[in-house]
């Protein structure tokens, strides 16, 4: 039996029937119950489905719910959105294992794992494997859980392993971290995240007992956890990104590698910087600079550049320009792998990207345009996110210079030109910032349309 979708002129009858079957007499009641189910399933006390969102879901055009809403619906009904009257987007195949041979569908076949305490009985020993299946299946299917139990459990496994005593193949794990640190290279963020989580799941049991080489293995855990946090940040999952950075910081501390710890703090600073808390970002970046001790390393250069952006966002012009000068000096001292074009290195291209943002925030549009041109000249073709962010920086500069129509056009083209996998999180946040500055200008409607109407339930 194939799935049918009956969200038509009479509204989403499938979802309405499911609600009534649960005994929820109103959309408000359903929103409360699904919110509660979502908070438990996602391990997120702030999660909520509003009555307005529920009314839209029961309407003739419910749209396709985002990942955390999909998990909440599944937690409440035991069924995925396509079994609740929502029309799947093109190419949707459903979570791994959700179809029977021959193409038949089965509802409620991909349950998220339950939370367990540390005292597991013998029947629960396969939980780590179940979590890996849930994570890889959900991510491959386009369902991402911002703070879901499987993702949280993967992080807790690393936390629990830190402090414990099993031999590990250190060169293999160090090369794994190096390989993962090369960036997206044209891959979708969700795919990169799935690979990182698979590596961390395999690393956890080895880390839990290692005596010899434990500091090196902890450094690997710190790097992989930090990379996980970076991808979560880019996808727009601020809270879970911060959690993973904290885990990365703990691992870096256990490794005794001050440079790694400084890198983690500098990278973590970009979360509050890009999500509206620049004072927090400035504090983290300054801590990273202090921890690096001014050494000629990528972490110190990155910390200076992020500090410049954070102080600029706080309106502290003097400290921002001092940090810009410090970043210039730090870049000039880097050699070899410290300049590598990876998430661990600090190449000249990355330097110009950061200074573009700093000068944009300071309102120095001429210097910002110059940094953007330098960065673009050094940016490879696969770097679709970097190119889009630079274009959005240019749009922000144009808006500050009073060229609002041109700013809307540049931002609209940049955002609409991104592959769908890159249109959430950081890029969307930056595009929305530009939209707010050009709202009402000629061409702003095109940017609004590229953003999907701006508002998203």
Helix content: 55-70%
Average pLDDT = 80
Total strands: the figure is: 2
Shape, principal axes of CA atoms: globular
User: Biggest sheet: strands side by side, in what order?
Assistant: 1-2
Radius of gyration: 23 Å
Structure description:
The protein is mostly helical and 457 residues long. The chain folds into four domains: 1-86; 132-256, no CATH class; 258-362, Serine Threonine Protein Phosphatase 5, Tetratricopeptide repeat, CATH 1.25.40; 383-457, no CATH class. The chain has helices at residues 13-21, 27-42, 51-57, 67-77, 127-140, 149-161, 170-180, 189-207, 214-234, 238-255, 258-274, 278-292, 298-313, 317-333, 348-362, 365-377, 384-400, 404-416, 426-438, 444-450; strands at 7-8, 11-12. It has a two-stranded antiparallel ribbon. A hairpin with a 2-residue loop joins strand 1 and strand 2 (11-12). Helix 13 runs antiparallel to helix 14 (317-333) and helix 18 packs antiparallel against helix 19. The chain starts with 6 loop residues before the first strand and ends in a 7-residue tail after the last helix. Residues 1-9 and 91-126 have low confidence and may be disordered.
């Amino acid at each position: 039996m194939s799935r049918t979708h009956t969200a038509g002129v009479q509204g989403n009858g499938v979802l309405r029937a499911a609600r009534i079957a649960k005994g929820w007499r109103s959309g408000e009641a359903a929103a409360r119950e699904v919110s509660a189910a979502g908070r438990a399933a996602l391990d997120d006390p702030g999660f909520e489905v509003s009555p307005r969102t529920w009314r839209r879901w029961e309407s003739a055009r419910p749209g396709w719910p985002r990942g955390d809403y999909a998990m909440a619906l599944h937690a409440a009904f035991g069924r995925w959105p396509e079994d609740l009257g929502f029309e799947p987007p093109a190419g949707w195949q459903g979570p791994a294992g959700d179809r029977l041979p021959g193409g038949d569908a089965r509802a409620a076949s991909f349950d998220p794992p339950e939370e367990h305490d540390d005292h597991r009985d013998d029947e629960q020993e396969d939980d780590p494997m179940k979590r890996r299946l849930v994570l890889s299946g959900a991510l491959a299917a386009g369902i991402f859980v911002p703070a879901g139990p499987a993702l949280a459990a993967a992080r807790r496994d690393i936390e629990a392993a830190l402090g414990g005593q099993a031999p590990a193949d250190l060169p293999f794990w160090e090369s794994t971290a190096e390989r993962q640190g090369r960036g997206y290279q044209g891959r979708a963020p969700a795919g990169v995240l799935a690979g990182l989580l698979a590596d961390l799941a395999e690393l956890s049991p080895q880390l839990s007992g290692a005596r010899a080489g434990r500091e090196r293995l902890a450094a690997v855990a710190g790097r992989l956890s930090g990379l996980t946090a970076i991808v979560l940040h880019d996808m727009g999952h601020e809270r879970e990104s911060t959690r993973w950075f904290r885990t990365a910081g703990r691992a870096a501390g256990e490794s005794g590698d001050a440079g790694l710890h400084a890198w983690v703090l500098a990278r973590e600073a970009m979360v509050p910087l890009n999500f509206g808390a620049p004072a927090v970002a400035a504090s983290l970046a300054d801590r990273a600079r202090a921890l690096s001790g001014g050494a000629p390393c990528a972490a110190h250069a990155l910390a200076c550049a992020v500090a410049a952006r954070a102080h600029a966002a706080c309106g502290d012009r003097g400290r921002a320009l001092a940090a810009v000068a410090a970043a210039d000096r730090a870049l000039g001292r880097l050699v070899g792998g410290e300049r590598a074009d990876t998430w661990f290195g600090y190449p000249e291209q990355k330097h110009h990207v950061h200074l573009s943002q700093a000068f944009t925030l300071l309102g120095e549009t001429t210097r910002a345009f110059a940094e953007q041109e330098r960065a673009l000249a050094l940016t490879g073709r696969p770097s679709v996110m970097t190119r889009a962010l630079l274009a959005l920086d240019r749009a922000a500069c144009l808006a500050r210079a009073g060229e609002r129509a041109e700013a809307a056009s540049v931002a609209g083209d940049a955002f609409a030109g991104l592959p769908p996998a890159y249109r959430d999180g950081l890029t969307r946040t930056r595009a929305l910032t530009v939209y707010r500055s050009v709202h009402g200008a000629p061409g702003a409607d095109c940017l609004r349309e590229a953003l999907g109407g701006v508002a998203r339930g």
